[in-house]
Every structure is written in C-alpha cells, then in structure tokens.
Amino acid sequence: MRESTLALDGKKCLIMRQADNEHPLVKGVKQLGGTPLQVPLIAFKKKRLSEREFDSVKKIHTYDWFVFTSQNGVHFFMETLSEMGLSFPKEKKVAAVGSKTEKLLNGLGIMVDYVPEKFTGDHLAAAMRERVSPGERILVVKGNLARDVVGQVLKEIGCIVEDVVIYETVFPEENKVRLVHVMESENPEVLIFTSPSTVDNFVSIAGDRLLEFIYGKVIVSIGPVTNKALKKYGMPIHVSPEIYTIDEMLKQLVLYYRGAF
Question: Where are the alpha helices (DSSP H) in the chain?
Fold first, then answer.
C-alpha cells in the first residue's frame, strides 16, 4: 500500500495513555500512516491491600464468581496471587469487561463465562442480574477509579459481594511540561482520549489555553464514559466507536478521514 493511500497519512496523533511501541494503539496509528506522539497522562501501579482486602484475596476459593473490570485488574491481581502463594481457582465462573480483558484471562488458562456486549460496568451489572443467584459469593477486582455499579446491583439481588481495589491510577507529574512542549512544537492533528482521567489531566494542564490546544484538532474518544468527561468541559467529539475498543476506535477514525460521516 502506498503511503499516500493511508488514512492517517503523515498526521500526528497524541496518545495520552501508557503505551509502548508494541501497544495496539501505537502500532495501529503507524499502520495507518500516522505518527504517534506518546505523552502518558495516566499511569498504573499496584495498590497496597488493606487488611480487609488481603483477607478477601486469601479466601479466593470460596467465591462463586470473579468479576474483572480491566486488563490492569487481571495483571495486578495475578501478580498479587503469586506473591501470596495462591493459585486462581479455574473452575469458578468469571465475568470480564472487554474483549481484551477476556483474551488476557484466556491466555492465562482462565475461561471467561460472560463478557457484556458493550464494554462498560453498567452493561455488565445489568446482564449479570440474569446470571447470578441470591447468596452467591462474588469478588469484584477493580482499580481505584472504577465505579461500584456492579457490586451495588448484585448486592440488591441478594449476592454476597466483596471488592478488591488492586491498582491505582496515578498522574505522571513529569509529563506536564512534556505535554505543553508537544502541543506547541509538534502541533498534533489528532487527540486520542482513552479514559476520563486523560481528559481531566489534559484540561488541568492546558488551563486557560484549552481552547487554543483543541482548536482545529480531531478529538477521538474511546467510549461513553470518556465522552461524558469531554462534554463536561465543553469539548467536541469527532470520533467515538459503538464498540469501545482500540480497533473500533481506529476504524472510526479512518472513516472520519475518508468522509464517511
């Protein structure tokens, strides 16, 4: 394929999440002819468990269901199990938010019983009402910014729900200056937001220069929760997929540049 036929031909795309050169978002932008500019505005680290959370993990074989809300949750939970000398009870039922979370679990030999059609906690909570029974024990594994919608819904129908906040989302302070430098010197055409936290931190750094930073840019959002954050600041949304994955987001970006909508 000639470079001139690529949808992102020479366009600079700002990526504001942690992503190495092998990450699907970085590779996808390159394959479409774009130049990825990586300035992570969020990072993730394993959280020190509270005494209650530690006890919850120790009782791992007593649960009927495990709910994973993200790939990070899977990664840090398995790391914690290893440190505690525990193994995951693979005969239990598992629900996961997102096809990538499912794929990661499958790669660990863990079969996933349910993934919602739309990759949000709200859709997972609604669907699991039909799949669980009162009295079942459920462990929800999540990050510190995840909403508690799944746990609340399952408690309402009589399930015994415990949660473990296994990781924290943090702001890499060193990237404040880098973001301003990239916006001024590189002038990216595309801004890609993959979480509400990336939106909040971008706006915080931009300050009274927000309108200047977003003027003439194509703003891409991964899904409805991130859309809500963008709308809160009055920012336009040019691209947002119906299925909340990186692959679908890039497909919609291609359609945007080809004038499909």
Answer: 24-31, 51-58, 71-83, 99-107, 121-128, 149-156, 175-185, 196-206, 210-214, 224-232, 246-257
pLDDT, tens digit (0-9, with 9 covering 90-100), for 69-108: 889 999 999 999 999 999 999 899 999 988 889 999 999 9
- Model confidence over 32-72: pLDDT tens digits? 999 999 999 999 999 999 999 999 999 999 999 999 988 99
Q: 114, 136, 170 — which closes off a domain?
A: 170
Return the SS3 of 53.
helix
Burial class, 6, CB count within 10 angstroms (exposed 0-12 / middle 13-18 / buried 19+): middle
User: Are residues 37 and 9 part of one domain?
Assistant: yes
Query: In whole angstroms, what is the distance from residue 100 CA to residue 79 CA?
Result: 18
The whole model's pTM is what? 0.79
Residues 198 and 122 in one domain: no
Range of the domain at 106: 45-170
CB-CB contact of 253 with 106 (8 Å): no
The answer on 16 and 129 residing in a single domain is: no
Task: Mark residue 175 as left, alpha or beta (left: phi above 0; alpha: psi -120 to 50; beta: remaining).
Answer: alpha
Calpha distance 125→142 (Å, rounded) = 14
Instruction: State the total domains in the chain.
Output: 2
Instruction: Tell whether 212 and 240 lie within a shared domain.
Output: yes
**142 & 67 share domain:** yes
